[in-house]
Amino acid sequence: MTDFHEAAKGGLTSAQLEEVLRQVGAERYHNRHPFHHQMTAGALTKGQMQAWALNRYCYQAVIPRKDATIIARAEDPAFRAEWRKRVEDHDGDDGWNGGIAKWLKLATGLGLHAEMVKGERFALPATRFAVGAYLSFCASRSLLEAVASSLTELFSPVIIGERVPAILAKYDYVTRDTLAYFEKRPEQASRDSNFALAYVLSHADTPERQQAAIDALVFKCDVLWAMLDALMHAYGEPGHIPPGAFQPEAR
Predict the structure, then answer these.
(1) What are phi and psi of 243, to 5 degrees?
(2) Which domain of life does the protein's organism represent (predicted)?
(3) Coil, strand, or helix at residue 86?
(4) Domains recognised in the chain with CATH numbers
(5) What is the pLDDT of residues 100-146, one digit of tens each?
(6) What gap in Å lies between CA 91 and CA 209, rounded to an integer?
(7) What is the average per-residue pLDDT within 15-34?
(8) How far is it, in rounded angstroms, from Cα 60 to Cα 125?
(9) pTM for the full predicted model
(10) 41 class by beta-carbon count within 10 Å (0-12 exposed, 13-18 middle, 19+ buried)
């Protein structure tokens, strides 16, 4: 496993920086996580699938807030115009006809109550802490670091391509309509990551800024990994569900 913490020592060309960023995803993106492997193998119970959808909703719901925070920090109108597409993708025209609403449809399609999912209080504490850390990171670190942290979208078409066919093939209670959230995400993620990558390669123009961008992407991969760690700990065998969190058998 590569140690990325000194990857930019001495400085990198743009091509080298892009290679390092893509290597971060190859080694640390959460399609390598055992929980994802169990999902694509058809090994998760319906309760575990529900727990995944409920907890992931917390992350989906914070994305437009994170992106609005980034927009507020950007002085370039052209940057803001491009970045606000992300908010529109998730909020839609009225707040409830975009990606967040589609994720809620996924959760309710798995048998969860919409208000319970939207309330988020049955999510794991670790999920809420991870999501909050991501929002705080984008609000408190440099704009370059906030943008670089979004580069996990470079790799999301890969995980979607693994996840969707496997879920449809191996979980007979899931329909293509249930997974409507994923239909447009590869295209949106490619558009957004292309813009973000170009921004990072242009603005990470010193070894220090290059390292900050690399560290930001490592941090974001850690956030996504930690969320799946929490799910496995709580809902795996033997299972250690914390007080107040979703109980599949109690729904």
Answers:
(1) -55, 135
(2) Bacteria
(3) helix
(4) 18-234 (1.20.910.10)
(5) 999 999 999 999 999 999 999 999 999 999 999 999 999 999 999 99
(6) 32
(7) 98
(8) 16
(9) 0.96
(10) exposed
